Amino acid sequence: MAAQILDGKKIAEQLTEIVKRDVAKFEAARSIKPGLTVIIVGENPASKVYVNRKHKACEELGIASEVVRLPETTSEEQLLQEIDRLNSDNRVHGILVQLPLPKHINSELVLERISPLKDVDGFHPVNVGNLTIGKEGLVPCTPYGVIKMLEISGISVEGKRAVVLGRSNIVGKPMTMLLMSRNATVTVCHSRTKDLAAVCREGDILVAAIGKPEFVTKDMVKPGAIVIDVGINRVGDKLVGDVKFDEVQEVAGYITPVPGGVGPLTIGMLLHNTLKAAELQLEK
Ligand SMILES: Nc1nc(=O)c2c([nH]1)NC[C@@H]1CN(c3ccc(C(=O)N[C@@H](CCC(=O)O)C(=O)O)cc3)C=[N+]21
């Protein structure tokens, strides 16, 4: 039996409808339009495509969107000044600095400069802490998108054994927190895990976020498991995930494709976070 495919594009459309309605409600009640500013430094072609996609999604939802394009040669100090300016601009509710940044800029310093209330990526240590202790805050878009995808598809994680493959700050760690808070039993494994295949095979849910093209093979998947592929790897001119889709879909119960899986949900959650940020700022 082949796996059921979780269609990220379709599910993202449902999410977009929900966020669109929430934005309209907010605007009617507050007479304020939520605003997102994306800063992009340099000329990474993949980043440009992604930033344009976000911009379009904002326009569709009634979110004011601005893109600040800075040259590759921008100094760290100039970038920090730009963030300070946006932090104190009350029309800007969300700030996102597109990663990766040029090598001469310290990303950690930059991400920590963004006001935690405007940090729509959820990367600021204050938001990381809030997620860890279960306090309301801004949650990283990609793992949050995975949770929304499961929710909208009617798949419960409660009581299930979830295996997160990868321990990054952007996906693996926040994914672990989100699954744990929803009562899954979570195992985190990574490149140094012994008997990695056996550990992965324990997962009723397997989230692949290791950043290695087609790393997860069918022997690593429990029959009937829910396989979520967070990987976005460019191989030649093709986009492939962290899962060897063709063979894993033979054993999985559900599987997300790449492209058309988790990616579209990530953008949906960014828009949700922009609205959430606007709400948080009005509370203060
Ligand atoms: N500060 C920051 N925040 C980010 O969230 C961030 C970032 N920097 N830098 C780059 C990565 C990458 N990322 C993607 C999100 C959605 C898709 C997406 O929508 N993918 C579609 C289309 C892919 C395609 O065709 O190119 C899909 O998977 O179907 C891709 C990539 C967010 N990132």
Automatic annotation (TrEMBL):
Metabolic or biological pathway, per its Swiss-Prot or TrEMBL entry: One-carbon metabolism; tetrahydrofolate interconversion
A GO CC annotation given for this chain: cytosol
HAMAP family linked to this entry: THF_DHG_CYH (MF_01576)
Main function: Catalyzes the oxidation of 5,10-methylenetetrahydrofolate to 5,10-methenyltetrahydrofolate and then the hydrolysis of 5,10-methenyltetrahydrofolate to 10-formyltetrahydrofolate.
Keyword terms, alphabetized: Amino-acid biosynthesis, Histidine biosynthesis, Hydrolase, Methionine biosynthesis, Multifunctional enzyme, NADP, One-carbon metabolism, Oxidoreductase, Purine biosynthesis
Gene coding for it: folD
Family per record: Belongs to the tetrahydrofolate dehydrogenase/cyclohydrolase family.
Domain (Tetrahydrofolate dehydrogenase/cyclohydrolase NAD(P)-binding): residue spans on this chain: 140-281
A single GO BP: purine nucleotide biosynthetic process
The organism's place on the tree of life at top rank: Bacteria
Quaternary structure and interacting proteins, as annotated: Homodimer.
Name by which UniProt lists this protein: Bifunctional protein FolD
Segments forming domain Tetrahydrofolate dehydrogenase/cyclohydrolase catalytic: 6-121
Keyword Signal part of the UniProt annotation: no
Positions annotated to bind NADP(+): 166-168, 232
Swiss-Prot/TrEMBL catalytic activity: (6R)-5,10-methenyltetrahydrofolate + H2O = (6R)-10-formyltetrahydrofolate + H(+); (6R)-5,10-methylene-5,6,7,8-tetrahydrofolate + NADP(+) = (6R)-5,10-methenyltetrahydrofolate + NADPH
Molecular-function annotations in GO: methenyltetrahydrofolate cyclohydrolase activity; methylenetetrahydrofolate dehydrogenase (NADP+) activity
Record EC number: 1.5.1.5, 3.5.4.9
InterPro entries per UniProt: Aminoacid_DH-like_N_sf, NAD(P)-bd_dom_sf, THF_DH/CycHdrlase, THF_DH/CycHdrlase_cat_dom, THF_DH/CycHdrlase_CS, THF_DH/CycHdrlase_NAD-bd_dom
Matches recorded under Pfam families: THF_DHG_CYH (PF00763), THF_DHG_CYH_C (PF02882)
